[in-house]
Amino acid sequence: MGAGERFATRKGDAFAAMEALGAEGARFDLVVCDPPAFAPAKPALEAGLRAYERVARLAAPLVTPGGFLCLCSCSHAADLTQFRNASARGIGRGGRRGQLLHTGFAGPDHPQLPQLAESGYLKALFFRLDG
Question: In angstroms, rounded to a whole number, what is the distance separating the alpha carbons of residues 129 and 59?
Answer without folding.
Answer: 11
